């Protein structure tokens, strides 16, 4: 039983039973066998939902080769340069860094676009290390299983030999992961998503159609990058003779079961086509700013009927892996572009919670009876929040630095007083330093 937490609807008690919110309201009676947590003075939100990440980049922050680069120069200089040297040990350390950063800021669900797959056995060992890290930290995890069948016109991938896998191997491996880990229920702690690295650059049309068929045949959702830069639109028109979003439609990659990261260069006709299918966006404003890519027209997308959600993207292009940082930037950047009425703090918080959960098909992101008990508590007596009149929205308005006091995922405490319970901090610091220094020796 949680007593007296502040929510956006005012003070509330919350009863958690069998991994779910059993009841919520004021003055709830305390069951005889209940553990009582006094949350007076704490802000309670539903856990934040991150719909696009690249956890392999959590150990690639601030690489000098990519600091002054746009996306097209950054890709070969940072993630694709590091990829051949990422071992299972590197992935395990990097994922734990990313999960710790997410959880400590209040994110309880992470959809990771993991695309480090080639024909070697190492690719599946790296995937296993990622899944192990998610299991140990207790975060709700969505594996967006990426990959590429051709090097094609992708300016990062085209620089390297061997970083592809053929379609048959891709499907065979996905079937194994599906059978071993995937839970399609709304209460799932692990979901698989079909997620080619790029629908424009790295996958042939027939491969995209086959992947879409596999996804829908198994009830899986679909994800990829699209229109992060103008190069995507240019290559779609050059190679396929039609705009990028129209091409995605032609190969079966629009729908309410599909979402794309970025969509910075989606014009109004593209937005209207995406909206007709209820296709979604993972908005990643910090990375888009850091790489100079631009600002996605998210208010227009929401108005048209697209599903709008928020992601942190990879820490190699957005050195913060905090959802609080992303929601504050989302709140601010569209007001800078479109005026002070372009966003509200409440709307942005909904994009980062209930909208993200709905897009992923998960029973999370809400403080209501029957929802999974994914809860985050913030201290309101921190100096940063003390002067805020709308205390229930303080993290949106004030942003980082913020560390959640307590975090619960699926009815289990995973963070206590800012400490991630499933991670040995000293061990992580040692392994992170070792792997970071090894990569620096290779890539510097």
Helix amount: 25-40%
What about the largest sheet? 8 strands, parallel
What would you report as the Rg, rounded to the nearest angstrom? 21 Å
Q: Which spans of ≥5 residues are poorly predicted at pLDDT below 50?
A: none
Shape: globular
User: What's the tally of helices?
Assistant: 17
Beta fraction: 15-25%
Given helix and strand content, the structural type is alpha/beta
Mean pLDDT: 96
Strand order of the largest sheet: 6-7-8-9-10-11-12-13
Terminal Cα separation, in Å? Answer: 52 Å
Let me know the number of strands: 17
Q: Give the oligomer, counting copies of the same chain as homo and different chains as hetero.
A: single chain
């Amino acid at each position: 039983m949680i007593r007296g937490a502040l929510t956006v609807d005012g003070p509330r008690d919350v009863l958690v039973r069998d991994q779910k919110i059993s009841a919520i309201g004021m003055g709830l009676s305390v069951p005889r066998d209940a553990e009582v947590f006094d949350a007076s003075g704490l802000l309670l939100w539903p856990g934040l939902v991150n719909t696009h990440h690249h956890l392999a980049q959590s150990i690639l922050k601030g690489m000098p080769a990519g600091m002054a680069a746009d996306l097209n120069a950054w890709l070969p200089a940072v993630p694709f340069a590091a990829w051949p040297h990422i071992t299972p040990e590197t992935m395990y350390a990097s994922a734990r860094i990313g999960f710790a950063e997410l959880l400590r800021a209040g994110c309880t669900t992470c959809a990771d676009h993991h695309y480090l797959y080639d024909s070697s056995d190492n690719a599946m060992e790296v995937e296993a290390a990622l899944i192990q890290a998610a299991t140990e930290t207790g975060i709700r995890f969505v594996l967006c299983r990426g990959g590429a069948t051709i090097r094609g016109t992708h300016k990062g991938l085209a620089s390297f030999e061997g970083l592809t896998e053929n379609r048959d191997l891709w499907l065979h491996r996905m079937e194994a992961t599906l059978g071993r880990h995937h839970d399609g229920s709304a209460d799932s702690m692990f979901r698989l998503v079909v997620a080619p690295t790029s629908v424009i650059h790295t996958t042939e049309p027939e491969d995209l159609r086959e992947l879409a068929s596999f996804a829908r045949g198994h009830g899986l959702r679909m994800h990829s990058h699209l229109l992060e830069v103008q190069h995507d639109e240019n290559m779609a028109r050059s190679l396929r003779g039609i705009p990028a979003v129209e091409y995605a439609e032609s190969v079966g990659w629009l729908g309410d079961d599909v979402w794309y990261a970025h969509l910075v260069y989606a014009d109004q006709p593209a937005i209207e086509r995406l909206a007709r299918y209820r296709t979604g966006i993972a908005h990643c404003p910090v990375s888009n700013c850091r790489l100079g890519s631009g600002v996605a027209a998210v208010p227009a997308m929401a108005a048209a009927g697209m599903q709008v959600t928020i992601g942190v993207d990879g820490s190699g292009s957005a050195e913060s892996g905090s959802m609080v940082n992303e929601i504050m930037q989302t709140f601010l950047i569209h007001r800078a572009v479109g005026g002070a009425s372009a966003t509200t703090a409440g709307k942005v918080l909904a994009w980062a919670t209930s909208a993200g959960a709905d897009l992923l098909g998960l029973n999370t992101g809400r403080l209501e009876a029957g929802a999974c008990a994914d809860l985050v508590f913030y201290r309101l007596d921190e100096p940063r929040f003390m002067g805020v009149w709308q205390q229930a929205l303080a993290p949106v308005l004030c942003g980082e630095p913020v560390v959640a006091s307590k975090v619960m995922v699926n009815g289990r405490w995973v963070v206590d007083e800012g400490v991630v319970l499933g991670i040995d901090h000293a061990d992580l610091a040692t392994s992170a330093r070792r792997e970071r220094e090894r990569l620096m020796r290779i890539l510097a």
